[in-house]
Specification:
Length: about 90
Amino acid sequence: KNHPFAHIISKSIGTNLDFKPEINVFDRKPSDRFLLCSDGINVHLEDPQIEIIVHDATNPYEAVKNLIYASLRGGGEDNITAACVFA
């Protein structure tokens, strides 16, 4: 959030034919929850707030809905995008 180059996009799809995606493989457990989101969420919410919202949700839809609402209440000055998966 406070990095001097936080506003710079370092990777994107569609702008370069030599795009090399970063791929990671993780082990998962039945209780795991995964969140992929834009900075529109973590600009307005601190990590502990995000963790609580995702943990307290009963399903991925509820997690995303509550994250978006909380981000909008927190200022909502940026694009807000989120995808959540419960393992």
